[in-house]
Amino acid sequence: MTYPLRIALVCLVVAPPLAAQSAERTPADVAHAFHAALTSGDSAAALSLLAPDVVVFESGGVEASRAEYRSHHLPADMEFSSSVSREITHERAGSEGGLAWVLSESHTTGTFRDREINTRGVETMLLRRTSEGWRIVHIHWSSRRVQSDS
Q1: What are residue 15's phi and psi, to 5 degrees?
Q2: Quick check: is 50 in a domain?
Q3: What order do you get walking across the sheet with 61-63 strand by strand?
Q4: What average pLDDT is seen over the chain?
Q5: What is residue 18's DSSP assignment?
Q6: Residue 7 domain-assigned?
Q7: How open is the CA angle 38-103-95, to the nearest 5 degrees?
Q8: Burial of residue 120, with CB atoms counted within 10 A of its CB: 0-12 exposed, 13-18 middle, 19 or more buried
Q9: What pLDDT is attached to residue 147?
Q10: What's 138's domain CATH number?
Q11: Does 79 or 15 have the greater pLDDT score?
Q12: In the chain, how many H helices and how many E strands?
């Protein structure tokens, strides 16, 4: 075996394929993809990023599974997201072992069902690493209206 061929074989065995290296989304990528799916009205994509046992805290209520979220708030969340503009003003993420978190602050403006929206929001997403990649296991949304200066 020639020297260059040995190097090529070692690289193939040691390094995963380039596609596999770039294919796994980071926890923040998953959070952004979830919001993009809501905004575009792609319920299948949004649901695929949620663990079956996801727990969603929203509007003072609890949805204790992906199926419950799908049958309750998902349609309204997609309608809302497609009607307004959400700007992330601060975000941080981290992970330890098979768990990760994405914490964000946002400013949302627009019109939803004939109501003017101008809110500051916070979001906590907890994610778990699965064989399919990172999946969201908990979401907590909270928001408040921005007071006008008039």
Answers
A1: -95, 130
A2: yes
A3: 61-63, 50-58, 133-145, 115-130, 99-112, 84-96
A4: 88
A5: H
A6: no
A7: 110
A8: middle
A9: 86
A10: 3.10.450.50
A11: 79
A12: 6, 6
- Residue 95 in any domain: the answer is yes
Q: Which residue has the higher pLDDT, 100 or 15?
A: 100
Query: What distance lies between CA 44 and its chain's CA centroid?
Result: 14
Average pLDDT for 38-48: 98
Are 53 and 65 contacting, i.e. CB atoms less than 8 angstroms apart? yes
Q: Number of structural domains, the chain?
A: 1
Residue among 116, 9, 144, 126 nearest 57 (CA): 126
Beta strands in the chain (DSSP E): 50-58, 61-63, 84-96, 99-112, 115-130, 133-145
pLDDT in tens, 67-117: 999 999 999 999 999 999 999 999 999 999 999 999 999 999 999 999 999
Q: How far apart are CA 86 and CA 41, in angstroms?
A: 15
Question: How many CA within 13 A on the CB side of residue 20?
Answer: 6
Q: Is residue 134 part of a domain?
A: yes
Range of the domain at 113: 24-145
Percent of the chain clearing pLDDT 70 (strictly above): 83
CA gap 80, 69 in Å, rounded: 15
Contacts of 33 (CB under 8 A, 6+ apart): 25, 45, 49
